[in-house]
Amino acid sequence: MHDKLHFAPLEDNKPIKILDIATGTGIWAIEMGDQYPLAEIIGTDLSPTQSTWVPPNVKFEVDDCEEPWTFPQPFDYVHIRYMVAAIRDWPKLVGQAYQHTKPGGWAEFQDFDARYYSEDGSMVEGSVVDSWVKTWVQATVDGGKDVHPGSQLEGWMQNAGFQNIRTEKFRVPIGPWPKDKHLKTIGAWNLVQLEDGMEAINMRLYTQTLGWKPEEVQVLIAKIRQELSNPRIHMIYDFYVVYGQKPFDRKVEVDPDEI
Question: Are strands 40-45 and 101-112 parallel, antiparallel or unpaired?
């Protein structure tokens, strides 16, 4: 996304309030705190894994975004990303984001669909990765989690009441196979983070839900890593950035392209 921290239009000369749901390590909130020194930024997550060295306008809280939100004041901007396979009720989550956004404020969701494919036919049906993704998707869906939120975000935001909705769709490569330098870098880093997270993604699901032995899962992970690293297989998935504005009380609308 060419180093953009956000797509929704924000004013950098006003003391705005920003909420970062599922902040993870907190790196996004920290960088936003540096970029918007007048903003007040709150990052929430189930785990307190964030750094204690943060800008003075950033703070972190332990919270579960699937429980009722209890923030006393609404926010100018609500940011939620990378929640695939983590949420049971997406319309509820988007609705809470709407409720806790100020009139005229913005909410932005960034997420993907867990469908790996190739545009040149290099990823074939029945391959190790194809079979793994289908098994992982089915087991996750059976557990009540949505694995394809990206393409549904726009509809959920419309149903919640957001206006001036914009959708950006990106094809994200897995591995450094693209010829384009920018996409090659993205693909390389994407492969690193995917390979590093293989055990976290699979071990509990396969052993506790599907009944595999840990050593069987390790063999599968080795095969998946080998195929993901094959430069002749040009895997991609679709990543979506969707942002929208909560209507003003007096139905004053702003075109985000004019801000």
Answer: unpaired
Encoded tokens for 122: 């290099």
pTM of this prediction?
Answer: 0.92
Task: Note whether 173 and 234 are within 8 A (CB).
Answer: yes
* 140/137 Cα distance (integer angstroms): 5
- CB atoms < 10 A from the CB of 151, how many? 16
Per-residue pLDDT for 236 more than 70? yes
**pLDDT, tens digit, 9 for 90 and up, residues 155-166:** 999 999 999 999
Asked whether the beta carbons of 164 and 148 are under 8 A apart, the reply is no
Q: CB–CB of 132/220 below 8 Å? A: yes
pLDDT at 13 over 90: no
- Of 129, 161, 140, 157, nearest to 229 by C-alpha is 129
Measure the N-to-C terminal CA separation of the chain; round to a whole number of Å.
Answer: 20
d(CA 207, CA 213): 6
- Residue 254's pLDDT is 47
Which string of b and e fits 176-189 if b means at least 16 CB within 10 Å?
bbbeeeebeebbee
Q: 20-63, pLDDT tens digit by residue?
A: 999 999 999 999 999 999 999 999 999 998 988 899 999 999 99
